[in-house]
TrEMBL record:
CDD domains reported in the protein's UniProt record: ALDH_F6_MMSDH
Protein name: Malonate-semialdehyde dehydrogenase
Domain Aldehyde dehydrogenase stretches: 19-481
Family: Belongs to the aldehyde dehydrogenase family. IolA subfamily.
Reactions catalysed: 3-oxopropanoate + NAD(+) + CoA + H2O = hydrogencarbonate + acetyl-CoA + NADH + H(+); 2-methyl-3-oxopropanoate + NAD(+) + CoA + H2O = propanoyl-CoA + hydrogencarbonate + NADH + H(+)
Its biological purpose: Catalyzes the oxidation of malonate semialdehyde (MSA) and methylmalonate semialdehyde (MMSA) into acetyl-CoA and propanoyl-CoA, respectively. Is involved in a myo-inositol catabolic pathway. Bicarbonate, and not CO2, is the end-product of the enzymatic reaction.
Pathway: Polyol metabolism; myo-inositol degradation into acetyl-CoA; acetyl-CoA from myo-inositol: step 7/7
Length: 491
């Protein structure tokens, strides 16, 4: 019997509470990276689509900003319940379009829900300050207000968590929102929008426009969009920060990373190797908090490396929906090729290859095995660049001071960890390392929703970070009211 061709679904934008077809004629394939199957087609929307979304969002903002904050928060409570009920379905969607393991996807959903829970505290978070008698008969109060339409631009590696860093808080404090998800992972965000509607969010408060640079430029240039939250790579983040600022918008841009983990002679090697394997190779190394470099004290280096290599050889690679899989595919064929180019560069520049990921490629999906290089130096490209793939570099150092010197040479400063039982070393590390998020005896020091996601140097452009109280400040502005009440004499 002849095979019947099944037409792949074309996605629609979500504007004003409706699924609307983009005006574009250009669509891009969305893949399941574990099978190479095309699972949807995403529109590369136009500036006109952004114009429409911005008009709708501006109108919605004018009504939404005066809804009492407690009522807005109740919608987020509903949303939290719905997301929790759909946890497994959401995680399956993440694994389907991103490739990470189901357990990591479930973890990501949990992180996203935490952001919604934090944002549901908006009534308390929005409180201002006041002082009853700042001068004779004069009092001062400080009120927070939403700022307008917010644009959010997200990467492919956390299709749920990263958008949830943005829109729950933005809308809880009274703004409206336009999300541009990554064109590589658009399916999960469809479900996020559907559930927001079910939670009772009025139409137009949250909108979603799929696409790539045309949508980003439309958001950056639109006069009604007052602030931009960006998460993605360094070159694009720099571009977004510059162009958004030039257009006089508030911009926060969370960008690339090259995270170093320090292992000292007194570290618990079992704990250190287990955590480092997970940090470097979980999510196929496609995490902004992934460990890319280990600086290990020479005294323990051979022992550490032999355990690490042993464990790396036992890593199960495969479809993230299968039990026991740690290492899924990278996102696209071009990312796999780029990873291979970096591995070749590492060899060419003189690093010692001790585990070669090229030996574990699989053509069923965009799979490349874990790679480890020893004797890496800070002159090498594999140390300098963010590879964003399962490639780990090891640098042997004399002591903690040298380990910190190596890490601080990097242009990035997102996260850094130390494995040691020495309290003085931990304190020295905390005081001297250049990084915004530190881990002590753990591998992925990603802060929870209540704290800022606070990269430094080329890992972040802006002032106020995502999450925590920073996010309340970023999505609001303040009115400070100074009032004089001429006091009659009551005596
Ligand atoms: P990316 O920069 O390629 O894409 C991010 C967003 O920008 C996407 O929505 C994409 O469509 C858009 N974009 C891409 N190229 C563009 C261009 N030329 N002009 C305008 N817009 C463009 O990033 P990615 O590959 O999706 O994600 C991986 C990167 O994100 C890594 O560098 C990673 O470190 C970073 N990241 C950082 C954090 C953090 O908190 N610092 C968190 C997650 C991911």
């Amino acid at each position: 019997m002849a095979e019947v061709a099944v037409e792949v679904r074309k996605l629609k934008n979500y504007i004003n509470g409706e699924w609307v077809e983009s005006r574009t004629t250009q669509y891009e394939d969305v893949y399941n990276p574990a099978t190479k199957e095309v699972i949807a087609r995403v529109p590369l929307s136009t500036r006109e689509d952004v114009e429409y979304a911005a008009k709708v969002a501006q109108e919605a903002f004018d009504k939404w900003k005066i809804v009492p904050v407690q009522k807005r928060a109740r919608i987020l409570f509903n949303y939290q319940q719905l997301l929790t009920q759909h946890k497994e379905e959401l995680a399956r969607l993440i694994t389907l379009e991103n490739g990470k393991s189901f357990s990591e996807a479930l973890g990501e959903v949990g992180r996203g829900i935490e952001n919604v829970e934090f944002a549901a505290g908006a009534p308390t978070l929005m409180m201002g300050d006041s002082l009853s008698t700042i001068a004779t008969d004069v009092e001062v109060s400080n009120y927070r207000y939403p700022i307008g339409v917010i644009g959010g631009i997200a990467p492919f590696n956390f299709p749920m968590m990263v958008p949830c860093w943005m829109f729950p808080m933005a809308i809880a404090v009274g703004n409206s929102f336009i999300l541009k998800p990554s064109e590589k992972t658009p399916l999960l965000t469809e479900k996020l929008a559907e559930l927001l509607q079910e939670a009772g969010l009025p139409n137009g408060v949250f909108n979603m426009v799929y696409g790539a640079h045309d949508v980003v430029n439309g958001i950056l240039d639109h006069p009604d969009i007052k602030a931009i939250s960006f998460v993605g790579s360094k070159p694009v983040g720099e571009y977004v920060y510059k162009r958004g600022s030039e257009n006089l918008k508030r911009v926060q841009a969370l960008t690339g990373a090259k995270n170093h983990i320090i292992v000292l002679n007194d570290a618990d090697l079992e704990e250190a190797t287990t955590n480092i394997i997970n940090s470097a190779f979980g999510s196929a190394g496609e995490r902004c908090m992934a460990c890319s470099v280990v600086t290990v004290e020479e005294g323990i280096a051979d022992q550490f490396i032999s355990r690490l290599v042993e464990k790396t050889k036992n890593i199960q690679m495969g479809n993230g929906l299968d039990d026991g899989v740690l290492l899924g595919p990278v996102i696209r064929e071009e990312n796999k090729k780029r990873t291979i180019r970096y591995i070749e560069k590492g060899i060419e520049e003189g690093a010692s290859m001790i585990v070669d990921g090229r030996e574990r490629q699989s053509e069923e999906g965009f799979f490349i095995g874990p790679t480890i290089f020893d004797h890496v130096t800070t002159e090498m490209t594999i140390w300098k660049d963010e590879i964003f793939a399962p490639v780990l570099s090891i640098i042997r150092v004399e002591n903690l001071k040298e380990a910190i010197k190596v890490a601080n040479k990097s242009e990035f400063a997102n996260g850094s960890c130390i494995f040691t039982t020495n309290a003085s070393a931990i304190r020295y590390f905390r005081e001297n390392i250049d990084a915004g998020m530190l881990g002590i005896n753990l591998g992925v020091p990603a802060p929870m929703a209540f704290f800022p996601f606070s990269g430094w140097k080329s890992s972040f452009y802006g002032t106020l970070h995502a999450n925590g109280k920073d996010s309340v400040d970023f999505y609001t502005h303040k009115k400070v009211v100074t009032a004089r009440y001429k006091a009659p004499s009551f005596e």
